[in-house]
Amino acid sequence: MATNNAQGLGGNSVILRLDIDTARMNFGLVANIITSMGGDIIAIDTIHIGHESSTRDITVNVTDAGDVAKITDAIQRIPGIRLVNTSDRTFLLHLGGKIEVTPKVTIHNRDDLSRVYTPDVARVCMAIYEDPDNAYSLTIKRNTVAVVSDGTAVLGLGDIGPRAAMPVMEGKAMLFKQLAGVDAFPICLDTQDTEEIIRTIKQISPSFGGINLEDIASPRCFEIEQRLKEELDIPVFHDDQHGTAVVTYAGLINALKIVGKPISEVKAVVCGIGAAGVAISEILLAAGIKELIGVDKEGILVAGEAYSNPVKDAYALRTNPNRVQGGLSDALQGADVFVGVSAAGLLKREHVLGMAPKPIVFAMANPKPEIMPGEIEDIVAVMATGRSDFPNQINNVLCFPGIFRAALDCRASVINEEMKLAAAEAIASVITDDKLDKYYIVPSVFDQKVVELLRDRVIRAAIRTKVARRIPKEYR
Ligand SMILES: NC(=O)C1=CN([C@@H]2O[C@H](COP(=O)(O)OP(=O)(O)OC[C@H]3O[C@@H](n4cnc5c(N)ncnc54)[C@H](O)[C@@H]3O)[C@@H](O)[C@H]2O)C=CC1
Ligand SMILES: CC(=O)C(=O)O
Ligand SMILES: [Mg+2]
User: Fold this and answer.
1) Which CATH superfamily is domain 240-476 in?
2) What is the mean pLDDT of residues 408-414?
3) Which residue, 191, 222, 302, 382, is most buried by CB atoms nearer than 10 A?
4) Ligand 1 center–CA 341 separation, angstroms
5) In the prediction, which pLDDT does 10 show?
6) What is the CATH number of domain 110-234?
7) Its pTM surpasses 0.80
8) Which residues approach ligand 2 with their CB closer than 6 A?
9) Phi and psi, residue 351, nearest 5°
10) Where residue 2 falls among pLDDT bands split at 50, 70, 90?
11) pLDDT at res. 7
């Protein structure tokens, strides 16, 4: 069992099993040592108490994964203490994967068997053969989404491959089910070939009511999504693009209310013109932002430059109206908003000091943001990250369960721009003006109003734009 996290990917929670020689050691001292090494003891379970020794499980939270090694080293040097083992609670939770398939009916006898399976199932097959739309009423297609990745842009970890991508895709599937009742299945493909990915997704599509593309690197993700939208009759949604864009815009609607600036008058900088950055920029332009600058590894994207990637050429033509040149610090001079979907640690305090008064900073790279909130908390008006351990978590999890709930319920053929804008407005509207605060610009993932309001507004937008193929009865 892994006990540590070599990449230093932030906080961690471990269980230390200790044998304590009671004659030589008292437990209070152990607790002091753990605390002094940066550990936060959140539970102590007694496993065994004997005359001469006791065994305890100590659950410890650390803010930096590297602290675990420091704590275990220190403990092992204390006479009278034996470290029996260390278990990482996150790894324990992943043992055997996080989801399973559960039948909706139980097979008790031969009669049941012949109905769920052959021979009677054949009549159901023929009903679908005669009218393929029956697949929506007679199979899991009605409520099931494929979460498909090639493992090339997993969180901010990059190209870690399809096997290593599975825990994220399983997590997305859990969230689909728990938050919106959507059955979702993780599918990680062992290919990076655009045509092969498109062909494979098309081939598996009969089983699904929608396709959620996840963590596929740019620029390939753009073509894959575009082609699948054209060639399939079920919604195809690249979550890292559109889910992120929807939630970012929702957060910005509320952050701008706090600083009292209209969107048409702000200058915004998006850092990381990949999947998320392009889609965020599109939704901000659609929402009326005029001065938007994109920054990537080449610096500020400027119209007329020839970039290695045609997506960046097209991006530059639609943004940076004043043709500002240079790097991130040049782009941020006088900017009202920073949106980071790039990589850890790129934003510096000096950059933020150069921004306009009441700056808004959304540092959304995962798992480590462009800047940690503690570094600039005193100089920003509103700060958000993509993480659940800080206030204002701007994460696509606020969008993808609800938007697919809506799309499946009205059997939308696509998820269009109007539905995305409606989703963003719905998420923002969960926080009423009396509750709005610099630490509360987006609702909690667990706020049940998120899916409820999002579903309602998105279904209405789908009906209005004539992409709904079924009108749920409450809308008839
Ligand atoms: N909070 C959220 O909901 C989400 C966060 N993200 C995070 O955003 C980041 C990007 O995700 P994707 O757009 O899917 O990846 P991507 O790989 O499509 O795009 C990343 C972009 O950042 C650029 N970049 C990398 N290093 C840079 C640097 N030093 N300076 C300027 N640009 C740099 C890359 O060139 C690329 O264009 C990741 O960390 C990901 O975890 C992505 C989606 C959702
Ligand atoms: C949240 C998410 O989808 C990502 O970081 O890739
Ligand atoms: Mg993602």
Assistant:
1) NAD(P)-binding Rossmann-like Domain (3.40.50.720)
2) 98
3) 382
4) 4
5) 53
6) 3.40.50.10380
7) yes
8) 155, 215, 239-240, 366, 386, 395-396
9) -60, -45
10) very low
11) 39
